[in-house]
Amino acid sequence: MMHTTLNRLLAATLFSVVTAAGAQEAWIIGQSAPLTGSNAAFGKDIHDGALAYFRSVNARGGVNGKNIELITLDDANDRKKAGANTQKLLADGAVALFGYASATLSLDAMPQAEKAGVLFFAPFSGATPVRTGPPVVFTLRASYADELEKMLAFWTGVGARQVVVVHYDDEVGKQNFAVVADYLKKQGKTPQAFSITRNQKLEATDVEKLKALKPDVIINTVLSTPAAVISRNLVASNTMIPMSSLSFVGADQYIKAAGESGAGVSITQVVPNPTSRQPVVAECAKVMQEAGMTQPMNSAHLESCIGAKVLTEALRRTKKPGDARAVLAAFQSLGRYDAGGFVVSYGSNQNHGSKFVELSMVSRDGKLKN
User: Fold this and answer.
1) Is residue 262 located within the same domain as residue 319?
2) What tens digit of pLDDT does each residue of 204-214 get?
3) Residues 134 and 194 in one domain
4) Do the beta carbons of residue 163 and residue 217 sit within 8 Å?
5) Average pLDDT for residues 45-55, to the nearest whole number?
6) How far apart are alpha carbons 358 and 154 in whole angstroms?
């Protein structure tokens, strides 16, 4: 299993970068991710994509003579655990926090990063709390507003009027619904909300309640498991309702969970298609293969790998190697950076690197196609 293999490689790296005196001789990157629980597949993909890239950097001598050490702690998709993990990672000397799996898992981590003066980079979310987070928070991906505008422009353009938004009934989920409501208000439309509890199993009876709202289109802002339950139940009842999902769903995870029922669902993507020919896609596929991965690279792997590459460039430009505040300063002055066909731009007042959004569709053979 790739995750186990990479952890063994990480253990070997840890041994090699600690001196006899116990002094740390590595760039410590901290990460809290759901490695167990309902979102474990997504969390492992995020972890593995980054670790594969960092390993390739270490194989070439590291950054300024120091290896990059990724420390990942399991939060089981629980906000409180993510907050506790963050406290430990900062105490262990992390010079940056990287790749948290959602806005909810970032909520208690971001204030800690701000207090410590540590970079908080590339959370897998475009939600409002992340976009309006403390000045130490820098994102790689487009916002959910960018994604929702892309999909809503399509559906309203073909005549959809009754829009139903499936969202979590927590702070982040309600804000995602508000983004849709604000967009449709400009067109004289009001969406319907269908809220569910995070980490709670969705039942067939819940889907019947969703159908009772008579949507022309379902906008999904939740994870792959409940999204797949909706798709399977709609198909089983011979109900044809178009559905679009935010990138947050995890395209690969959704396709596996939904099976044939996922055909026709559109999903926004905030990085290029993993089968495209951009140089960074080829580079990330190569490092994943070198790390022992046998399955095709998915969009979560790719986004994490690109994020790791951008972070590595900031480490290279850091004037005081190993100093967290110097890493943050380097990121604030990174400017325009072409990662290989995927371009980001950062500055002292520019914390969000990309607005790239594509709307892709799941084909009958389980592929994501533009």
Assistant:
1) no
2) 999 999 999 99
3) no
4) yes
5) 98
6) 12
